[in-house]
Amino acid sequence: MWKIVIKLIAIILVVLLSACADPKTLERMGLVTTVGYDVTEDGEVLATMVLLHIDPEAPQNSAILTAKASTSKGARIKADLKSPKKLQSGQLRVALLSEEVVKLGLINLADTLARDPSISDLTYLAVVEGSANSLINQKNTHFTDISQLIYKELDQNIKGETIPSSTLQETMHDYYADGIDPVLPTIKGGNGEIKITGMALMNTDRMVGKINSTEAFFLKLINDRYEAGSVELIISKDGFTIVNQAQSPRELAVVIDTINSKSDIKLKSKENLEFTLKIKLKTRLLEINQTLDIKNPNNLKLLEEKLAEKIKTDVEALIAKAQEAGSDPFGFGEVYRKSVRKSNLTTEKWHKMYPESKVNVDIDFEILRTGVVE
Amino acid sequence: MKVLIEPKPQNMVNTFLLIFVVHSMQLGVGIQGFQRIIYLEAKHDAWISVILSGVASAIVGFVMVKTLAAYACSDLYGIQYDVFGKWLGNLMNILYVLYSLGGFHVIVRNYIEVIQAWVFPELPNWLLSFTLVFLVFYGLNGGLRTIVGVSFFSVILSLWLILLLAYPFQFTNWDYLFPILESSVTEILKGAKQMTFTIIGFEIIFVIYPFLKEKDRVHKHMQYGLLFTTILYLGLMVVSLAYFSGGQLERTIWGTLSLFKIVRFPFIERFEYVAITFWVLLILPNLMFYLWSASRGIARIVGKKEKKINWLLLAFLYLSLLYPLNRMEINMMNDYFAKGAFYIVFCYPFLLFAAVLIKKKFFRKKGGANVENSN
């Protein structure tokens, strides 16, 4: 008797309750894959969304919607009014923020993204030089779906260790940490291409400066969350014996690829706010633009010395630049917080102290291999 | 009421299974978001609080088993009846029954809130609670051995979730754990106290004890279960501290679930949905055991069969779950429950143990001897 009753209840439940949750049929959903935010002249948010079409007969496999409202979610509601399919943000891959938006502060938009459980923490954030709307709307011949182009481009370069990673999780992490500021890649559209130009330096959540892609490499080198990728460095050729000197350019361009790098930041003096930054770099030589005799150990040694010197000055210049802008993407503040007991560090406090801090850079550079031929 | 119980051999369970019972009872809804509560008190030394709470649970576990071992084969209800007498004893028994029912209610509430916040915002309360209550009723029909089986499988089948911590591990930065011991001792102790809601559950030993086969091995297996839980919580706490930055952790309501947010497989991109729905399996033993111990309590007091009481209690709980509460109110309810649980689980056992010792020492010759263990 009991068993029958229970089984009956179970069957009734299965039949009746299957419609209780909101059903989400894929064909009826408009999957937002990229969203771009601009700020209009009257201070409203202009959201541009790229939708993925699942319909195989559609002429294009993406559609673009634009809507304007006071908040980002408000813009989404308005965009829903223009869409034949219900908008869903679960497949959001990239959120683009125009430079103007980020100069005003990105935390409101980023917080909205982080608050929504349907949005992945692995969504990439990026800053657009110019307008996000026109970047998304530009004609491109290489890719049929612009959101795939942007996503793959960011993903490839972040995974390939060319630029620091800027997922929603990492941005929120650095924003809420006291002694480190987030960095976001900057991208620029034009001529049917989308190019990563470098990184945006931020003071808490406001963009205060820009660095180029070579500087982004050094930033990655200092941060040492993973390993840094390849970089082209230009040094003077004094002291080298170079064949065919007459036709060659004045400067020596060398491309190195890091095999592994290790950076270590230590607080040297608490009172003077002095840090020591030690970078250990093991690399292999990929290319030199001139015929340099690298069989000669002296040449190789000189090359190592010069490259180390070059990296040192570049890193120092980058730190000085960031200090001037008032942004600490390296996390010196975190080192300070970690090393000083009861520092009670807050973001404001650190931003006041940071420009006065001094960093001694020490580079340990080594070329391990020069390829399979000499 | 009879103080001593003589369970039928077919209702007894192996003591070895106590590890799973204790662990699955401790693991529930608290683990979904304990990081933030502890962090608010102890800052980045929160992991020390977790260790301290683990030590506290081991000590209390020891006292609980010692109390029970003073009797040949009895449970909390029998002991309280024996020690405090008919009226006071039964009053305490009713209090413990209410506590168990409260535990049931709080778990369902919190789980429903998680489901609504993360997966199905429109799903009504009545439906989710009905599904859970029905499941519990179904399990309880099988008796204690079924419930123990559920708790065994709940632990075994969810072990693989731990492996997924490898994903957030890639984003960890160990600098956030330093400097160690920056928070004061009081802050760390306060943090440990905040662990109450997460670490309770092992008080089930009070009710399940008579049904365990090998009584001399109870303490050992109890401590294994507690140790396993403490290690798991410690691991989660350390990873969370290194994964989130301080301010971020303060704003993350369900830290553990947010850790799962980063897991991405080629065939399933948003893993937290799987984890959250899988959590039913983790809370199911909690619900079953809490209801089982409540209905056993009432059955012991009034001397009726448990099955009828199950019905009534579940209907009562279901009705109480229909009352709508918002986030603030749920938080408040959690706080009140945790406060009560702190006294019931972490303070009261010492009192009871003292009472049992006193009774054993002074009243042995006066007729109470028949209920006491011969050694």
Descriptive report:
The complex is a heterodimer of chains A (374) and B (375). In chain A, the strands form two sheets. In chain A, strands 1, 2, 3, 4, 5, 6, 7, 8 and 9 form a nine-stranded mixed beta sheet that branches. Chain A has a four-stranded mixed beta sheet with strand order 10-11-12-13, sandwiched between helices. In chain A, a hairpin with a 5-residue loop joins β1 (29-39) and β2. Chain A has helices spanning 2-17, 72-81, 99-104, 107-115, 132-137, 146-159, 168-176, 213-223, 297-325, 332-339, 347-353; strands at 29-39, 45-52, 62-69, 86-88, 94-98, 124-128, 183-190, 193-203, 206-212, 230-236, 251-269, 274-288, 358-369. By secondary structure, chain A is an alpha/beta fold. Chain A is globular. The relative contact order of chain A is 0.10. Chain A is built from eleven helices and 13 strands. Chain B is mostly helical and 375 residues long. Chain B has one domain: Amino acid/polyamine transporter I (Up-down Bundle), CATH 1.20.1740. Helices cover 71% and strands 0% of the residues of chain B. In chain B, α3 (46-69) packs parallel to α17 (327-362), α4 (76-118) packs parallel to α16 (306-322) and α5 (125-140) crosses α15. At the A-B interface, α1, α7 and α10 of A face α5 and α13 of B.
What is this structure, in a nutshell?
The complex is a heterodimer of chains A (374) and B (375). Chain A has 374 residues and is an alpha/beta fold.
Percent of residues in helices of chain B comes to: over 70%
Any idea what the shape of chain A is? globular
Task: Give a short account of the largest sheet of chain B.
Answer: none
Oligomer: heterodimer
Number of helix segments of chain B? Answer: 17
Helix/strand structural class of chain B: mainly alpha
Series of secondary-structure elements of chain A, N-terminal to C-terminal = HEEEHEEHHEHHHEEEHEEEHHHE
For the secondary structure, the number of strands of chain A is 13
The biggest beta sheet of chain A is recorded as: 9 strands, mixed
CATH topology group of chain B: Amino acid/polyamine transporter I
- Uncertain stretches of 5 or more adjacent residues of chain A: none
Percent range for β-strand residues of chain B:
under 5%
Tell me the number of strands of chain B: 0
Q: Quote the average pLDDT of chain B.
A: 88
String of helices and strands of chain B: HHHHHHHHHHHHHHHHH
CATH architecture of chain B: Up-down Bundle
Structural class of chain A: alpha/beta
Residue-averaged pLDDT of chain A: 83
**Count of separate structural domains of chain B:** 1
